[in-house]
Amino acid sequence: MWCHDSQVWRFVFARYLPALAVLSALWEAPPTSIAYAVFHCTVGDVLIGVGALLAALIATRASALHNWHWILVNTVAVIFGFVFTAFSEWFNTTVLASWTYSEWMPLTPFVPIGVSPLLQWVVVPLAALAFSRRVAYSSKSC
């Protein structure tokens, strides 16, 4: 079972989490951004990403790292992150009205959710997992 495999935990925290954090920070960080907002968004993205990966490992009944069904784990993790983000974006902009999108943000056609945050949860986790997997298997430390 994946949760008993120390390689899984090393992979998640030593490979995936740092890659996800860096890619999330780059996604959130235009040069004019305020440091607190970037930090806040990046930490939130990392928590969502790790939660989505762990939920995917549970949902796919993943075993030891070397036996993962990578496409399935990636797909389920992306779906978890995407759905959580869609709900969070909608809830914060529509229900709580705690912030609004810039006029430059393209929105989805049926529900006013920003395209960029949704696209982030397709691009960033897949890139972080691909990078982490490549590093883990090339270094043989995971």
Task: Describe the structure concisely for a colleague.
The chain has 142 residues and is mostly helical. It is built from four helices and no strands. The mean pLDDT is 89.
Give the key terms.
142 residues; mainly alpha; 70% helix; single chain
Describe this structure in words.
The longest helix is centred in the middle third of the chain and has 26 residues, at 70-95. Helix 1 runs antiparallel to helix 2. It is built from 4 helices and no strands. The protein has one domain (2-139). The mean pLDDT is 89. The protein has 142 residues and is an all-alpha fold. The protein is elongated.
Give the N-to-C terminal Cα separation.
Answer: 16 Å
Rg value: 16 Å
Secondary structure tally: strands:
0
Strand content: under 5%
Order of helices and strands: HHHH
Helix content: 55-70%
Helices and strands, with pairings:
Blueprint: H1 6-28, H2 35-59, H3 70-95, H4 115-139
